[in-house]
Write a structure and sequence with these properties.
The chain is α+β, with helices and mostly antiparallel strands. Helix content is 31%, strand content 14%. ATP binds at residue 60.
Length: 335
Amino acid sequence: MGNHPNVEVFLRNHESLAPKRYRYSDVKKMTNSFKDKLGEGGYGGVYKGKMLDGQMVAVKVLSETKGNGEEFINEVASISKTSHVNIVTLLGFCYEGPKRALIYEFMANGSLEKFIYNGNPSTNGRLGWETLYNIAIGIARGLEYLHRGCNTRIVHFDIKPHNILLNEDFCPKVSDFGLAKLCTKKESMISMFDARGTPGYIAPEVFYRSLGGVSYKSDVYSYGVMVLEMVGGRKNIDVGVDRISEIYFPHWIYNHLELDELGLQGLMSEEDRVNARKMIIVSLWCIQTKPSDRPPMCRVLDMLEGSLQSLPIPPKPFLFSPARSMKDSSTTSEL
């Protein structure tokens, strides 16, 4: 398979924006022939590498079977327009026949996913509450920048713990823009022909258009689900729990928030307790079923950084069950 004409045209038209282009032989050299694998995803593998100047990088090698280059274009197009401390930096790319790779700054602590679930054997335990709170704020800043701060609004469409990378200081960076959509500031709604994202984090309007159009508020929903998972140390939908009332975590946490009996682990101080409660209230606002009821990310930041007393308690969330396959998504119903 040769280079896809769409991709070559795109790269020519965006030459001034696109990062440095590398040959496949360079990529092989910098990764020591793909020796040190950091992870694997639906798109292909990620390998640790080193630039000639000594800078450590993460090289994402896209699977050769992946379509006509749409995800590759998405990633280069969207991330090339960004420059923010909470967005991962794309340093270069390779596009040579079927060989495609994206070269990112290396993030020493890997993905957030490794640090937030209780009983995860791959880590030394959960992060402290101050770190979790700062990570939630950092991700919110990154998303607020994508939605409002850069020249073209970018909706990510795949916000989840796996796609949040952490540097050596646990500063979070939004990564993986393969499903992102670019839209002008004037466009409030996005036309979509396919449900995109990861089950469990996809906003209900992506399936049920009657709830409202698909917009940047879909990222707000995914952010809310993720922050609830950070607080609870468990997946949003957990089929491993015994009682049916506890399967859908937002309901459990909402009911216990009202009773002030959250029983969260590791709260060391009053400040931790206040920040945990703020994270919960904010995330419950973010997962409201109707997009119009969800706050924009600038308001999310205000709420997280403001006083707990000023935060109104949101309405109880509806159960939108995204755990099933996308084709078999159920209707929304309140428990």
